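#onboarding

Welcome to the new folks! Below is a worked example of what a typical request in this channel looks like: someone posts a single protein sequence, and someone else replies with the predicted structure as tokens. Don't worry about understanding the tokens yet, we'll cover that in week two.

Example request:
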Amino acid sequence: MFYENYYGGMNLIWWIIWIGLLVWIFAIPYDIPFQRNKKSSPLDILQKRFASGEINKEEYYEKKTIIENDLSGLS
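Example response:
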């Protein structure tokens, strides 16, 4: 009877919508806010450089005071 076009019409549109939604959720997670695109603050970058040994203790504290003074001036 009416089952010959069962996979056409509105049912096909819903399949496309669901597949598109699943692709958006699982294959493109970088576009979801607050998931993976967190930007590092200048202090975070400085701490990573100190932890990896790129800069020594004196440089770390010198640059940290400069960054903190700059950030306090913005508030």
